[in-house]
Amino acid sequence: ESDTASEISFQLNRHKKTPSIGSHSSDMASVSSVSGSVLSVYSGDFGSVDAQGTVEFALDYDEKNREFQVHVSQCKDLAVVDEKKGRSDPYVKTYLLPDKARMGKRKTSVKKRTVNPIYNEVLRYKIEKMVLLIQKLNLSVWHNDPLGRNSFLGEIEIDLASWDWSNRKLNWYPLKPRSLSAVNGVDHRGVMSLSIKYVPPGSLGKWPKNPPSGEVHIWVKDVKDLLQLRPSGVDSFVKCYVLPDTSKKSYQKTRVIKRDTNPVFNHTIVYDGFHTEDLKDACVELTVWDHEKLTNHFLGGIRLGLGTGLSYGISVDWMDSTQEEVAFWQEMMLAANEWVEGLLPLRSL
């Protein structure tokens, strides 16, 4: 893996207008063409349906085998995701919090075409009881999308320190909307240090009429306190997209920094093709990933934009920037041709 410099173009989802935005990232290592899909940046869609229904499960701890067991029985009256076909394909996923890394993740099989799925499956964790008691169990229900855009159907969060371990019976629990701890990013994922700059069209002296459109420069400096997924640390890299992007053509990424929970990237990305009015409707999305041979694991991210929930008049769930992210973006808009520095917490998005 190395930093790359590439040229890309994609179409903004605008009414009647489809300006092309190109991008390149600067580095001394190499120059190559990069292509890939930007549609499934995340495995989850939290905004498509309202949480409803109930889930039946039981908790137990096997002292002999030092094993925490979650017996997932069934769900009832789940939300319908595909209204045209009147169907949902639900599965149940569990995490031990605050560690949302892959070691704490378990999930059931997918039950197709039902809002009343029956599982009768046991999700198991090899964990010491003392360690278990300082964690929370997050149990959530999801609709499985073949394209990877899974939809959130509801969740329940249990403080295992106060759990009645003599209760081994199956009980029903109402599914709730996304928890406040998830919304507010209480689970610490690290902090990204970066600078951004907007160069308005025609503002560069040596090119009186050029560039014909503006540029957004993103300087990814470093990240501190990433989740440690293995004893040796984490092999991390950063992806960057400018939303909306419906062409699925390409994305930008840094090189991989190995075995370091405080990676220094020092990588600059430039997106051109920006008109000043596009800054109100576009969103720069930076996400940090753990690199593995078979699959990459999402560690956290930020979204830089105005956080209005709208893009070119269309309601979108990714226009959800936090107050800090919005303030950072606004400062860039007001300080043309100047680098704006920021230190922003990564979140689960």
TrEMBL record:
Question: Which UniProt keyword terms apply here?
Answer: Cell membrane, Exocytosis, Membrane, Repeat
**Where's it found, cell-wise?**
Cell membrane
Could you tell me which CDD domains the record lists for this protein?
C2A_SLP-1_2 (cd08393), C2B_SLP_1-2-3-4 (cd04020)
What are the GO cellular component annotations? exocytic vesicle; plasma membrane
Q: Where is this region: Disordered?
A: 1-28
Residue span(s) of domain C2: 51-173, 188-319
Query: InterPro entries attached here?
Result: C2_dom, C2_domain_sf, SYTL1-5_C2B
Q: Name one GO biological process term.
A: exocytosis
Q: A Gene Ontology MF term for this entry?
A: neurexin family protein binding
Query: What's the protein name?
Result: Synaptotagmin-like protein 2
Polar residues composition bias: residue spans: 1-12
Sorted alphabetically, which SUPFAM superfamilies does this protein's record hold? C2 domain (Calcium/lipid-binding domain, CaLB)
Q: Does the keyword Nucleotide-binding apply?
A: no
Primary location class: membrane
